[in-house]
Amino acid sequence: MSTWNNRGGDESAAEVLFEFTQIGPQMRIAAIDVKTSTEVVVIAPASASRADMQSLALGKLKLRLRAAGRSS
Question: pTM above the 0.70 mark?
Fold first, then answer.
């Protein structure tokens, strides 16, 4: 599990947890917004870079939060 935060001194900014689980040739990446407990899951090839996988999951989480009106 890894953590990403966008605080930069702003305590109201997002903190996101990432969970990576390999399932055969694929990787399941869960991104969880700590403040709202909102979770999204993406599936990517296990051969993709960890940074790309994390970026994909974070993008989906940001879209979900924006759609729910909880953008952090």
Answer: yes
Q: How far is CA 43 from the centre of its chain?
A: 12
Sheet strand arrangement including 26-33 = 2-5, 15-23, 26-33, 39-45
- The pLDDT tens digits for 8-58 are 444 445 799 999 999 999 999 999 999 999 999 999 999 999 999 999 999
Q: Cα-flanking dihedrals φ and ψ of residue 55, to 5°?
A: -65, -40
d(CA 45, CA 7): 30
- Strand pairing class (2-5; 39-45): unpaired
Q: Which residue type is seen at 70?
A: R
